[in-house]
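Quick illustration, no need to memorize.
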Amino acid sequence: MQTLPIFVHISKTSGSSTATLIGCNYAAGETHNITGGLYREKGVRVNPFDPKAVLDYVLRERKNLVRHKLISGHMPYGIHRILGVTPQYYVFLREPVALLLAHIRNVRRAVETRLKYDMLPPETEGYEFALKLLNCASPSEVLDMVLAPDFCPTGNAFRNLLTHYVSGCWFTEQVSLTQLNVAIDNLRASAFVGITEEFELSILMMAKKLKWRNVVPVLANQTPHSAKGQPFGREIPDEIRARLVRPLAYDQALYAVGQDIFHDAVKAEGTLLAEAAAQLKEIYQQLRRENSDLLYREERNLIDINAMSTQWQKIHERVLALNAGLAPASPLGRWQKICAAA
């Protein structure tokens, strides 16, 4: 049976930044992003987290998808069963409280942009939810709304997002201990588990696993903590963390298992990995000092597929330039050589 690497992009876990490397390590047509395919087919009005929309797309495209060297996008674990392949799953996890708040920031930003450009008419499913979410003035009001017991009874995307993805239930039912156990088994069987808070170490190990010649991505699609109207800042108050202990209990357990898997993998590498990760972190600090326009996707790209494509071309060029400029004797240059020869 064919083996196929599958990168499961869990929302707000550095998936867009990882995608900047995917596009630069394969020839055109060798990879396929399911989320991008949905947007191209249905337009940006489509909900890329709608299980039925994603399932329908994968079913229609299954014979085409298996021809690729890697597939990626917002999709659940288990998609390989439809494709009839032996999967190699790659995934990043993020600390659950930080993940929830980042997810809320991202949803509010997307809703606000779509309303601004008349991309969310009143007849759209979820329109009332969108208005309520934008009108919440405080962090407490937002959490009251998204954590309410009757909110999205078929599968609340704001509760235990990691477990929804990795168990494969993906917003079709509420998460329980059963899904957590499935998710833990799936995580342990994965080809690679990265940690968003350890992005530099994670992306370099993923590059080695996949034998990528380019190892330095750029940071993409990051919603600023200070964006106007956002209810949550960079620092998470203790009372918010305390309130989220119980609602996010399954994700906390899964994240702990993921950390163990990740740290065991780090220990298996030599000191060069840490040196290369430190150099990569310095590159990002320099980009931030330069106020790189690629660190934050412009709002127009959220609703204009052509603008989005143009932005990704610019990102592609920046990634290639960053990797071409690595000194061969530097830690990243040496890591780059190891990855290409792996």
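The first helix runs from residue 15 to 22.
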